[in-house]
Amino acid sequence: MNFSPETYLWFKSFHIIGVVVWFAGLFYLVRLFIYHVEVQTQKEEIREVFNKQYTLMEKRLANIITTPGMVLAVIMATGLLYMQPSYLSQAWMQVKLLFVLFLLIYHFYCYRIMNQLTNNQFNFSGQQLRALNELPTLLLVVVVMLVVFKNQFPTSAASWLIFGLILFMAASIQFYAKWRRNKKQLT
User: Which of 36, 38, 111, 170 lies most in the core, judged by the most C-beta atoms within 10 Å?
Assistant: First the structure.
């Protein structure tokens, strides 16, 4: 089958849109899990209302935004690879697909968490969920860098400095959240 160059650009455009929607959903979904877990310390009547609301919001977000974004991204990526099968033999694409596999596992793990929260069988703390919420960010950074740099993945000192700054920012966010919680407990 012979595709026009324009067809490739359509696949690529919708792949990027799917990825953006998918990540937006994943970022917000785990944030809802954090709120869902943290409301468990409230009074019974407040907890009941918020549990129902968070369960509804999580299911709608996962089923109406996050999963359709994932499906769109995967279908469009499949179309792109069908049109450019030579990419599959390149190391950067193989590594990218490995990280996408991790992301798919993360996505379905979020469904497991959602079901456990719905059934009051979830035992992670808000802090543990905050750490889990950083994983898709790290996967996103690696995948984007692989796509941009392909086989010339940066390994210079400047690249490691940027990577270090990203890790420092993530650690700072975690530290600030912990500091804020400790300060709140003291008052």
Answer: 36
Q: How far apart are CA 132 and CA 34, in angstroms?
A: 10
Q: Is 27 exposed, middle or buried (0-12, 13-18, 19+ CB in 10 A)?
A: middle
H helix runs in the chain, sequence order: 5-38, 44-60, 67-83, 91-118, 126-149, 157-186
Q: Is 0.85 topped by the overall pTM? A: no
* Cα–Cα distance measured from residue 137 to residue 9, given in angstroms and rounded to the nearest whole number: 26
Which residue carries 């999580």 as its tokens? 58
* Residue 127's pLDDT band (cuts 50, 70, 90): confident
Is 107 labelled a binding residue? Answer: no
Residue 96 annotated in ligand binding = yes
Alpha carbon dihedral 129, 134, 136, 138, in 10-degree steps, equals -150
Radius of gyration of the chain (CA): 20
